[in-house]
Design a protein that fits this description.
With 247 residues, this protein is mostly helical. It is built from 12 helices and 5 strands.
Length: 247
């Protein structure tokens, strides 16, 4: 997302037709888009951590837009982008590239298991990510299906029920320990795939999770070398991952 923010800002700054105030240009000159992206994502984290399922449901895509609009105001960037450009920028979450191991990892795991997405993303976002990333699911479940956000039990239990499976026969693979902890409380098996800069737990909380042992399979960032992540998960299930073709 940092790349998208940088590109959108650069395009506007270099546009001959853009009429930007000197104050906005000064703010942009000093801004860290890494910090801006972190604040934007942190707003989403606060949403899902505090969401009350009894309130009217707000999709992630709509929240990405409204939180971006607010953040632009808070950072004194009003006028940098038009309302239409802000909407387009907020849609960039729909077109993120998957981790390099994911397509082959999915193909390997699909030889032995049905694969389901269980995401806080809304249906439109999931559809776009699936198409853009050329991902292959048995079925994709969205928080929108359950009008709640993980780590709410409504999401984990709802997905298992929709698959007509008891939760003990489901395994959640995730890069966030908070997500896995919520799933484990509902009876899921849990598989943690470490991803750089994805974990929201502090180092101390990560170590505590390791000691408590509620993660059933822990794939560290270096496991499997360049073919880690989902490929390493497949390997641990005894699935051959070499010479794996993709459509």
């Amino acid at each position: 997302m940092v790349d998208a923010l940088t590109a959108f800002a650069s395009e506007k700054l270099n546009s001959a037709s853009a009429s930007l105030s000197s104050a906005v240009r000064l703010v942009v000159a000093d801004i860290s888009w890494d910090d801006f992206a972190y604040q934007w994502e942190d707003a989403y984290s606060r949403l899902v951590d505090t969401y009350d399922p009894s309130t009217p449901f707000v999709t992630v895509s709509e929240f990405h837009h409204t939180s971006l609009v607010q953040l632009v105001k808070d950072e004194n960037l009003s006028g940098l982008w038009s309302p239409e450009e802000l909407r387009e920028l907020s849609q960039q979450w729909h077109f993120l590239h998957p981790w390099l191991d994911v397509p082959r990892g999915f193909a390997a795991l699909a030889q032995q298991f049905p694969l389901y997405a269980l995401s806080n993303g809304d249906k439109e976002l999931l559809s776009d990510l699936t198409t853009f990333g050329k991902l292959h699911w048995t079925r994709a479940f969205s928080a929108e299906d359950f009008h709640a956000y993980k780590p709410s039990p409504l999401v984990y239990n709802g997905a298992a029920a929709a698959c007509q499976l008891p939760t003990r026969e489901c395994a959640l693979v995730a890069a966030h320990l908070g997500d896995l902890k919520g799933a484990k409380k509902c009876g899921y098996q849990t598989i943690y795939v470490e991803r750089g800069f994805e974990e929201h737990f502090t180092p101390e909380e990560v170590e505590e999770a390791k000691k408590e042992g509620w993660v059933d399979m822990w794939v560290e960032a270096g496991d499997g070398g360049d073919e880690g992540g989902f490929l390493e998960v497949a390997r641990r299930f005894g699935i051959e991952v070499s010479d794996l073709g993709l459509d």
